[in-house]
Amino acid sequence: LQALVDSERDELSQTRDGCRVMVLVNSGLSPDADMAVNQGADGVGLYRTEIPFMLLDRFPSEQEQYQRYSEILSAFLPNNVCMRTLDVGGDKELSYFPIIEENPFLGWRGIRLTLDHPEIFLIQARAMYRAALETQNLSVMLPMISSIHEVIEAKKLLARAWKEVSDDLPECSMQQPKTGVMLEVPSLLYVLPELAKHVDFWSVGSNDLTQYLLAVDRNNLQVARLFDSFNPAVVRALSHIQQQSQACTIPVSICGEIAGDPLGCLLLLVLGYSELSMSSANISQVKYMIRRVRIDDLVLMREQILACETAEQIYQYLFQYIHELD
Ligand code: PEP
Ligand code: MG
């Protein structure tokens, strides 16, 4: 079976009834490694920029960041690369920038930290934009956003960085790359129409969204059994996001672990998602699944799944569907 699954890697990710599903990769490793393993991806749905920062013992310079981002952007041409601005704090530590907190997942994380240190944010944004001038396949995503105010403030900094970069090239006709946010803090779910006025796209971070909706530390083994993205509350939240994205005509993707899980990707197709971003190791199994299902059948399961009271019932529905596939 594994050989069969692996052989799917370079096939088009399309359902039996002809619906194209974008299969994107979550990345953060060196471009060579990424190139080697990600050939089956339709682009990068999440480039975790903090990973290279975590491998160093000091902040990388603008030039160092520029070089790395150029390599990544070129490696994935002509596909798009969605780079997330620095998401440190929580469980992601920088040895050279220690943060001591009682409650790190509710603390100084992601955009909160970079808005307090605009110099870190501006250097990174300039490095990304300089790299994108050559390849034009960048979009920028903001992590850990919990209010529209943060989006407005971060966009001011991004506009400043873009101006500095493009002013250096008087003949530059390129538009500023698109800006989006991670949907991973539950508060945003209640302000999506307003948020839509400020962003070009969004991507669901189901790892953190599950953690914050269920109040379950994503890394605490003691409560690991409660961390379940199939919990009906999470599933209804994912459905709400998909429906609101359609109503607001905002492109939505999902880049948490659920997208790379065989049953998880099925659930997302049922809910109407069509852009899934995952670790490269999961690409072939997800493609295998996509190429065996019919969207027409899956959408019929939507109401039943949304009516489920327990995660087990949702798993059962999806298992049953898989067993009935020919
Ligand atoms: C997420 O929270 O789902 C996500 C993709 O971001 P990270 O896992 O890097 O926090
Ligand atoms: Mg996250």
TrEMBL record:
Gene Ontology biological-process annotations: phosphoenolpyruvate-dependent sugar phosphotransferase system
GO molecular function, one term: phosphoenolpyruvate-protein phosphotransferase activity
Superkingdom field: Bacteria
Any one GO cellular component localisation term in the record: cytoplasm
Keyword Kinase: yes
Location(s) in or outside the cell: Cytoplasm
UniProtKB keywords: Cytoplasm, Kinase, Magnesium, Metal-binding, Phosphotransferase system, Pyruvate, Sugar transport, Transferase, Transport
Family to which this protein belongs: Belongs to the PEP-utilizing enzyme family.
Protein's name in the database: phosphoenolpyruvate--protein phosphotransferase
Organism: Alginatibacterium sediminis
Gene for this chain: ptsP
